Amino acid sequence: MPLAAEQFSGLTHLGSGKVRELFAVDDADGEPAILLVASDRLSVFDVVLPSEIPDKGAILTALSLWWFEQLADLVPHHVITATVSDYPAALQPYASQLVGRSMLCRRLDMVPLECVARGYLAGSGWLDYQAAGTVSGHALPAGLQDGSKLPEPLFTPSTKAAIGDHDEAITRDQAGDLVGPELAAELERLTLAVFGRAAELAADRGVLLADTKLEFGTDASGTLRLGDEVLTPDSSRFWPADTWQPGRAQPSYDKQYVRDWLIESGQRGRAVELPPDVVDATRARYVEAYEVLTGRSFADYLAAA
Ligand SMILES: Nc1ncnc2c1ncn2[C@@H]1O[C@H](COP(=O)(O)OP(=O)(O)OP(=O)(O)O)[C@@H](O)[C@H]1O
Ligand SMILES: [Mg+2]
Are residues 128 and 155 in the same domain? Predict the structure, then answer.
């Protein structure tokens, strides 16, 4: 059964993202917390498809939790616990729907920026470069191709669009205008630090981290924390290093199967059911991303959850 907010009728529903259901919770100390429940929904070209990818919510949660640990010395994160038996009593009736796919987090006042770092040129960065020769106001050498490595990783923030809208790339100066120059500088420093650490860990596993999107927010005591999901195939481009070849779109550990299938069948941007083989191949790709990056088995994660 697809995950839906109605299955949690006793909880305060804060909202639905494209992928997650968000609920308000008070944690044991009475601090405002938030329960993030990752569904198996898949959004492609900014459209949520009617088909789900089995276990995708658990995979994204498992991978985010692993990364938060790897990054904890660089930046505090929002996770309180993902062990359902440790959740507050009010959540226990829903335990079976929460296991593996949920995280109890500090409720943050989210910074209204998508903090993007790019080590390679792809996606909207590649489009912006072709149009203007720059990415988020950073001047770049001529002659770069789709998939080229950038001279150094860049902070390329974008606005957080309202539902249905596309995020809009902005310059660092515009980010400073939006959130204040000091916070913008701190976000740039943290985003590049996280990107650097993650790119290093991924490289050890034969994976290139092309780009990633982070979200930050401040907790009740004013501490800036890393929130949302981190370094998943939904928020990042991961490429197998051995097939990297600038000048074309790169094979990647994400929903590329789905994008390709939608384009080839002339249904780009439409909310259509996926054939079972596309669902299976996409699930396998997400599992592979988790297992390659963490060196852990996804079956073990599920068994321990
Ligand atoms: N600790 C937190 N406190 C409050 N909000 C959070 C926290 N962590 C993540 N969020 C918000 O929860 C939402 C996650 O849901 P989901 O990933 O489905 O959204 P999305 O579709 O990617 O984004 P959008 O909100 O733009 O639709 C995001 O809006 C994110 O900003
Ligand atoms: Mg999201």
Answer: yes
